[in-house]
Amino acid sequence: MKIKVINPNTTMDMTEGIGEAARSVAGAGTEIVAVSPEFGPESIESFYDEQVAACGVLDEVRKGETEGIDAYVIACYGDPGLHAAREVTERPVVGIAEASFYTASMVAARFSIVSVIPRVRTLLEEMVHGYGMSERIIAIRTLPLYVLDIERDPEGSMEKLRDEVRRSVAEDDAEAVCLGCAGFARFAAELEAELGVPILDGVVCATKQAELLVGLGLKTSKRKTYRPPERKRFTGMFSHFGTADDIAEAAE
Amino acid sequence: MKIKVINPNTTMDMTEGIGEAARSVAGAGTEIVAVSPEFGPESIESFYDEQVAACGVLDEVRKGETEGIDAYVIACYGDPGLHAAREVTERPVVGIAEASFYTASMVAARFSIVSVIPRVRTLLEEMVHGYGMSERIIAIRTLPLYVLDIERDPEGSMEKLRDEVRRSVAEDDAEAVCLGCAGFARFAAELEAELGVPILDGVVCATKQAELLVGLGLKTSKRKTYRPPERKRFTGMFSHFGTADDIAEAAE
Amino acid sequence: MKIKVINPNTTMDMTEGIGEAARSVAGAGTEIVAVSPEFGPESIESFYDEQVAACGVLDEVRKGETEGIDAYVIACYGDPGLHAAREVTERPVVGIAEASFYTASMVAARFSIVSVIPRVRTLLEEMVHGYGMSERIIAIRTLPLYVLDIERDPEGSMEKLRDEVRRSVAEDDAEAVCLGCAGFARFAAELEAELGVPILDGVVCATKQAELLVGLGLKTSKRKTYRPPERKRFTGMFSHFGTADDIAEAAE
Amino acid sequence: MKIKVINPNTTMDMTEGIGEAARSVAGAGTEIVAVSPEFGPESIESFYDEQVAACGVLDEVRKGETEGIDAYVIACYGDPGLHAAREVTERPVVGIAEASFYTASMVAARFSIVSVIPRVRTLLEEMVHGYGMSERIIAIRTLPLYVLDIERDPEGSMEKLRDEVRRSVAEDDAEAVCLGCAGFARFAAELEAELGVPILDGVVCATKQAELLVGLGLKTSKRKTYRPPERKRFTGMFSHFGTADDIAEAAE
Amino acid sequence: MKIKVINPNTTMDMTEGIGEAARSVAGAGTEIVAVSPEFGPESIESFYDEQVAACGVLDEVRKGETEGIDAYVIACYGDPGLHAAREVTERPVVGIAEASFYTASMVAARFSIVSVIPRVRTLLEEMVHGYGMSERIIAIRTLPLYVLDIERDPEGSMEKLRDEVRRSVAEDDAEAVCLGCAGFARFAAELEAELGVPILDGVVCATKQAELLVGLGLKTSKRKTYRPPERKRFTGMFSHFGTADDIAEAAE
Amino acid sequence: MKIKVINPNTTMDMTEGIGEAARSVAGAGTEIVAVSPEFGPESIESFYDEQVAACGVLDEVRKGETEGIDAYVIACYGDPGLHAAREVTERPVVGIAEASFYTASMVAARFSIVSVIPRVRTLLEEMVHGYGMSERIIAIRTLPLYVLDIERDPEGSMEKLRDEVRRSVAEDDAEAVCLGCAGFARFAAELEAELGVPILDGVVCATKQAELLVGLGLKTSKRKTYRPPERKRFTGMFSHFGTADDIAEAAE
User: Which residues of B touch C86 (CB under 8 A)?
Assistant: First the structure.
């Protein structure tokens, strides 16, 4: 089985870290292909970044259809482009945020999210609300930390993250903590060992959920919402997004 | 005052119709600039289309910052790119769906939406839920009608629309109906005259709401959610999306 | 266009202030008629006050129907009598709370309300919940301040208000603040200048929304909820509330 | 114990029927005083009627404070003036709608409401939502029947009511039905016998709940929401509503 | 009338206290039979305890059907086995938590719960959510106190309870407080006298609500949800749970 | 890895079918132990059945702690005893309903449930609401089919199930369908092949989710909600449920 793990930003160091995290849990027969889109922002910290990055995700999924891919993981904690990606392929697509929510829900009754800079709070709130998880996710906490800081200063980042996760357990009474950025993948195991509650890294959760879906032979439903995009012309720099005949046909 | 009305798709006939609708209600001192992005899909009927189109919206808003624009209208009934656009400028940005919801809420206690092909239902449901309008919007109805059919066959489209709006009033007990596609703008007045309940066209609503915000001197809050995007490098075909210094500075 | 701005309480100093606020933003061709009912409480700070004041609002709307009025504004931050007023006339009726919510929603993702004495919190909570705004309005704050204190001691009131608005921005992370009393209208501009986030005064918002609705030729839907009240006998001091034939006929 | 059952409309035949319904279930030591306000509408079928009628309710509660009353029942299925009435007295006040909801909830998992003319649906929906009963009340049905029709043609009314209640049981799978008008009190027993599911008349439920509260020595909390109304001047035809010193003092 | 008050745990001292609380408010003609199941945990402080205790409740309700019982009260503040018990009998069954919520709702707009050890919070949250009471119950507070501590050290327990109830009134602005454990029944009156807000003991509330339901001749609806359990074989130590013919027949 | 799949009812034919379903998807190194409790109902079709069966589930989980079990699956579509089971062990416990919801959410935007006899609807509604899945699960459908009918007449059962699943796809516009009974496991593949939308059998979903959790080394959080049950005495036929020292110690 071949899973394409798409880091929606273009920072290759981070893509490699994400690939490693996925590989560390992938099954024996699973090949992990970790990529970044050919275009887009170097990190994702706003609706603006996310909106642009989602197009890169779609591009990678579309390319994946001829690369023998069995499932896709979107490795940014806002699940950018998730709905759209499911239209483009019938192979399973899993977002790391949703995967961490569902996985956490099976080992903890109430949990929290700790993420990067404060402005992402609204983005996360809307996502949590959209997934129906408002009763279970009892706190969203943010850090004074940019996504690229994690690459630049892993140790300092770990200190900040550890403090906030600890506070969430102590003050929010969180029974598990979801790490709200793909860049935090490397810290999950150490934090879990230290704190004694499940620490969910979305990359790891989504990789396994993708394997599970493929293992069960499940395909994205092509009825109503996730039908293939209607065939139509795309102009300008997206003109290649419009030759959707192959996609549309695949699901017919 | 200069309002840029952005039709997120690239069908210029539709852009012109949208511009006309906006002009038909704009105040004496208001100049309407109706545009389509230089790139993107010719119509928007899926999450995929919407995701790509949103980048075109952002491009038009970014260009608008040096064009003397006072406010922006996003003229597609999924409000694509709305959150992100508000990050990019401090000038008001109004989506036609939200504008129609708020306007309808002041003249009707319960109302419905009638939109294009069935697959958009999920997209609309999530939007309605996100805006907190689930109690007021009592039905979402769709038509066997593609967006471009409206340009190609206005009369046939009007027939289908009229029938469904009528059914919504009769069967859903809708007290007003929001037309769920910018392409329906031209039909609103006739339907309202025929049916005797408010028929809300989002283009018209959003144009007036944009004028209202400008008239009150309101600017998008630059605290937390809609702060300017963080400065960073964008690569590939989006490289020009990253020279965001001017935008960031404007709000500092 | 003639807009009747109804201050539901009977304190004429406040009515004048409200009229001024409305006039300060009204369009060139708009005449503002600011009134208080002939009967009712001198201020509104409880469900009891609000319930009685709502009858005064209805009386003013009913009289307005022969005064050439084009739209009505209910200028008390609980929107007293709003539903009922919409039954009595087909001309638009706008509450200052709803107008501030919708307007704020177009310039801020999350905002708060700062209002008068603590007991109004429940009243505001129920209203916010009813309008579907619970996700966007992240805090309701109250002040140790009676409505009439604002007239008696504007400077002291401004101090208290400023402190609480500041706290809401700092502690609630509010991106905009709605002033939860019509008496606060005069302070909005200064606060906005000081704090750098949108400060929404409902009187100003509602006046412009009323103009917008009239400008678009919108009328309150007379289907189902806001049909004219059924014709019937009212007795005692409300006997004149029952000669509703003219109202009923107008909408038939 | 003395319970004042207030029929908020001024139709004395209906008041008598309501009084009888209350007396039919009152305990041995309970005196039922059934009254209509001295002013207000002869029936309540809109927000307008309800708003005015609520003032009559408040007047009757205020008078009750010197009449040796132990508890109040508001006998109109919109609970008009309930919050405000609780501010005016510390003696329990019970609405017939809330009483029927709570009572029904203890004998049925899912139930419905059958009420009068269709326009009351919105009023009932907002009330149900406000009471947090949206999950349990699975249907609201209305009848082509004015409130006063019940007095004028009891047999014909019973026919219409029976048909709709039967439909609600059969089609909505309602496990119990709340009769959504105080005028329906007389039909409850017969319907229950016929249909074999609990048929809840609010008058009966509220009378017993009021007895229960008095029996337990419970008083309305005077903390925050239901504090006595602030002392202030009321003008015009409501001037006597403002001499609230006795009320305010009673709770201090 | 004979009400069986079932203390779901097997601590007889507590059962007696609960019986006394019920008797202290029961009507003249009401006989209170306070029992504990023959099997189960000595206290209930987790989902595990509650799950097992619920079977004891069912056993007592089933025995009650031949003991001339008119109604049942489940006297543990998680309402264990409530839905199931209503299937087993057509006589009213009332849980002390639901009874306290409905009763509190008629005398306070916003209230809180104070309960035992912290882990019960999730259990209470899910129950509050299930009853639709999330808007009214503004806080759930827990104590460092085991259920059996209340029997062992009533004075120390009262101190802890008083402090937390006081804090809830002061900090949560609670207008009434529900005591979240049947063992707290004895402290309610003293706390209410001290704090001046309604203090709701569920045992007392449920006993009176059960009397009310019997008084009104109401029976649990046997349509859909609470139909008698289907006849079937139960094996092992529950084999006597399966001879349900009498129960099933009773409601046919 | 050893997964204990607990069929909460005592019908061994069904247990075997469930075991087969689990084995059909289990990984190479996974041993499936399919059991029924030693006591309890032969099928689960009511709150009563479920309540009793949950004790059997707990018994099997407790025994499993000395049987070298790595994870547990509760194979009844009401997830009976799930919360309680998670208190008893730190090894993952997965319910088939939750597993089917989370799995379906990753391949379909809107889906439905088709289950057995009509009375289970309320049980399922409350569960769906509790899991926050109300927006995604757009319909719950039931069949005139007892659980044991499935064993007795598989072909007839399949006919009924097929018809209703088909109707759900056609009329509810369901994009996937969850089979709401463990007994339906055998029909999933055939239905999926016929209907072309994902048909989710909970047994299969839960088995894979359990493997996933074990594979990731995740353990149930022992903070707050799922702490081991407090040590205490259980009496009567549950006395062995109280010797919880081993359990409690395991997690300390």
Answer: 109
Q: What gap in Å lies between CA D129 and CA D137, rounded to an integer?
A: 10
Residue pair A103/F213 in contact (Cβ under 8 Å)? The answer is: yes
Smallest Cβ–Cβ distance between F175 and the set A209, A211, A225 belongs to A225
Cα torsion A199, A54, B226, A13: sign: positive
Chains F and C touch (3+ CB pairs under 8 A): no
Neighbours of chain F (3+ CB pairs under 8 A): A, B, D, E
- Cβ-Cβ contacts under 8 Å, B173 against chain D: 118, 121
Q: Which of F35, F120, F232 is the best residue to mutate to test the E interface, defined by the most E CB atoms within 10 Å of its own CB? A: F232
- CB-CB contact of E199 with E177 (8 Å): yes
Sorted by sequence, the CB contacts under 8 Å of residue F127 that are 6+ apart come out as F78, F79, F97
Is the CB of A129 less than 8 angstroms away from the CB of C110? no
Q: Return the closest-CA partner of residue F220 out of A196, A204, A178, A108.
A: A108
Instruction: Identify all chain C residues contacting D225, using CB atoms and an 8 Å cutoff.
Output: 47, 119, 121-123
Rounded CA-CA distance B59/B82 in Å is 12
- Which whole-number Å values give the CA distances from E84 to D197, E232, F54, F130, in the listed order? 18, 15, 12, 18
Contacting residues for C173 by C-beta, under 8 A, at least 6 apart? A118, A121, B223, B224, C110, C138
Side chain identity, residue F74: I
Q: What letter does residue F229 receive in the DSSP assignment?
A: P
Asked if residue D83 lies in contact with residue D109, where contact means CB atoms within 8 angstroms, the answer is no
Cβ contacts of A249 within 8 Å, gap of 6 or more: none
**Structural element, H or E, at residue D25:** helix D12-25
CA dist list (Å): D5 to B148, C207, D94, D203: 63, 42, 10, 8
First-residue to last-residue Cα distance in chain A: 24
Q: Residue F209 and residue A106: Cβ atoms within 8 Å?
A: yes
Tracing tokens 């969850």 back to the chain, one arrives at F178
Phi, psi (deg, nearest 5) at residue B138: -90, -10
So what's the ipTM on this one? 0.96
Beta strands at F137-142 and F111-115: parallel, antiparallel or unpaired: parallel
pLDDT over 90 percentage in chain F: 94
| Contact (CB, 8 A) for F3 and F71 | yes
**Confidence tier at E243 by pLDDT (50, 70, 90):** low
Give how far A81 is from chain F: nearest CA, Å.
Answer: 14
Which residue among A110, A135, A173 places its CB closest to the CB of E129?
A135
DSSP per-residue letters across D76-126:
STT-TTHHHHHHH-SS-EEEHHHHHHHHHHTT-SSEEEEESSTTHHHHHHH
Q: How far is F23 from chain A (nearest CA, A)?
A: 12
- Burial degree of C155 (CB within 10 A; 0-12, 13-18, 19+): exposed
User: Which are the contacts of D112, defined by CB distance < 8 A and separation ≥ 6?
Assistant: D137, D138, D139, D140, D141, D168, D172, D174, D176, D177, D178
Q: How far is CA C36 from CA C6, C9, C54, in A?
A: 6, 6, 11
Helices (H), chain A: 12-25, 47-64, 82-88, 96-105, 120-130, 147-152, 154-171, 188-195, 202-215, 245-250
The shortest C-alpha distance from C136 to chain A (Å) reads 10
Q: What is the pLDDT of residues C123-170, one digit of tens each?
A: 999 999 999 999 999 999 999 999 999 999 999 999 999 999 999 999
| Pick from B222, B213, B217, B225: nearest CA to B251 | B222
pLDDT digits over F179-226, tens only? 999 999 999 999 999 999 999 999 999 999 999 999 999 999 999 999
Q: Which residues in A lie closer than 8 A to residue F86 (C-beta atoms)?
A: 109
CB contact under 8 A, E83 and D109: yes
CB–CB contact E229 F38 (8 Å): no
The answer to whether the CB atoms of B175 and C226 lie below 8 A apart is yes
User: What share of chain B in percent tops pLDDT 90?
Assistant: 94
